[in-house]
Write a structure and sequence with these properties.
By secondary structure, the chain is α/β, with parallel strands linked by helices. The protein is built from 13 helices and 15 strands. The strands form 3 sheets. Strands 9-8-10-11-7-12-15 form a 7-stranded mixed β-sheet, sandwiched between helices. A 6-stranded antiparallel β-sheet has the order 3-2-1-6-5-4, with helices on one face.
């Protein structure tokens, strides 16, 4: 797919106000906006469908001692330090029309000044899991694992794979006045009515100290923003093993890799086996435009049509927004027994597949058949052999009639 620059219409907008760039980027379906000091100007770009597109260049005197007024605006709104000495994080809540947006900001000093990246988080996306792209078979599995009173549910994937949106949607599903729901986050990206949310690094609070305190606060459901070290992992697993439902995220390539990551942190195999209810692994891929995508047959799927982009006036190169591709692993007694032993990753995955798990690639191909993901993107989602999942695809298609 060739790169085609996106055009941005600034008519009627104030180009000296940073909100204009957030507004245009959001309307184009962007995930991030980059404010980048160059030798004699400020370059502003946004990421759309995986690629960065230039929005505008604003002339400005060079040098880190004279930040551009737009950068000063952003830092002032986010209550960040105006001195560009060290990297810093912040957030801004704003409205685009009737849409509430939360911006996660990251700044870093560079040679020609301070660069700021704003990640756009659309609060309205925290709705039903179905809207995130989960197929019915995976929705059923997820509802099963989060309906249990105790245990751990993990969302895994690389940076930018939609983990935050998914875990917030799960919290939205579980938010109940009869439950004490507590979160530990860095940063808190959305404020939920009825929940108790803790911001780490505020007044010296860390994930570890917050978790120790929360366990004395009579919690029912605990959300830990990310398991990133052994102390946090140990406390999260302790909570899951002592009658609490724990939700968290972890960086890994897939569901099996998430368990390996926890073992690498030093969590005993028997604890991992007993505590984890399920793992959701996911990626974000381009969503096909529903107005112009076309179906065609690709080998070796024989006569099963999959979809490809075309492009029209309602989309960008045949795509509009992004959609999740998911793999949901539910641990049953057979799989728990394998985890408690010295299991081999390949053997465990084959057993999980025999127990009904569908891989990321399998889910992506099913969505290409349904028309929401391109066949090319589905093939590139992982390195898994297509031939292994052909029989599963044909079996699922036959049950759909």
């Amino acid at each position: 797919m060739s790169y085609e620059p996106v055009q941005f219409d600034f008519e009627g907008l104030d180009v000296t106000n940073f909100e204009s760039y957030i507004y245009l980027a959001y309307k184009k379906g962007s995930s991030d906006v980059h404010f980048e000091p160059q030798p004699t100007e400020l370059r502003i770009r946004c990421r759309i469908e995986g690629d960065l597109h230039e929005m505008r260049r604003l002339r400005h005197a060079p040098g880190p001692s004279k930040p551009h007024p737009i950068l000063i605006q952003i830092k002032a709104r986010a209550a960040m330090s105006l001195q560009a000495r060290v990297p810093e994080d912040g957030r801004i809540d704003m409205m685009v029309g009737d849409e509430p947006l939360s911006l996660r900001l990251s700044s870093i000093p560079q040679v020609f000044g301070e660069k700021i990246v704003a990640r756009i988080f659309n609060v309205n996306r925290i709705t039903k899991l179905k809207n995130l792209g989960f197929r019915d078979v995976n929705l059923k599995r997820i509802r099963d694992v989060v309906s249990r009173r105790a245990g751990m549910v993990l969302i895994s994937g690389p940076t930018g794979s939609g983990k935050t949106t998914t875990i917030y949607s799960l919290l939205n599903l579980l938010n109940d006045q009869a439950k004490n729901v507590v979160t530990v986050e860095d940063p808190v990206e959305h404020f939920f009515s009825g929940m108790n949310q803790v911001q780490v690094e505020l007044g010296g609070v860390s994930f570890e100290t917050a978790m120790r305190a929360i366990l004395r606060q009579d919690p029912d459901i605990i959300m830990v923003g990310e398991i990133r070290d052994k102390p946090t992992a140990e406390l999260a697993f302790h909570a899951a093993m002592t009658g609490h439902l724990v939700l968290s995220t972890v960086h890994s390539r897939d569901s099996v890799g998430a368990m390996v990551r926890l073992l690498d942190l030093g969590i005993p195999q028997v604890v991992v086996a007993q505590a984890i209810n399920g793992i959701i692994s996911q990626r974000l891929v381009h969503r096909l435009c529903p107005h112009c995508s076309v179906a065609s047959v690709h080998e070796p799927l024989e006569q099963i049509p999959t979809h490809e982009p075309v492009g029209c006036e309602k989309c960008t190169r045949g795509f509009f927004d992004r959609v999740g591709v998911q793999e949901v692993l539910v641990l049953n007694d057979t799989l728990r027994k394998m985890v408690s032993l010295n299991f081999a990753e390949d053997e465990f995955q084959m057993m999980a597949l025999s127990e009904g798990m569908e891989t990321l690639k399998e889910d992506a191909i099913m969505k290409s058949i349904e028309g929401s993901v391109s066949y090319r993107d589905a093939l590139g989602i992982t390195d898994e052999s297509l031939h292994r999942i052909l029989n599963d695809i044909r079996r699922v298609i036959s049950t759909m009639g």
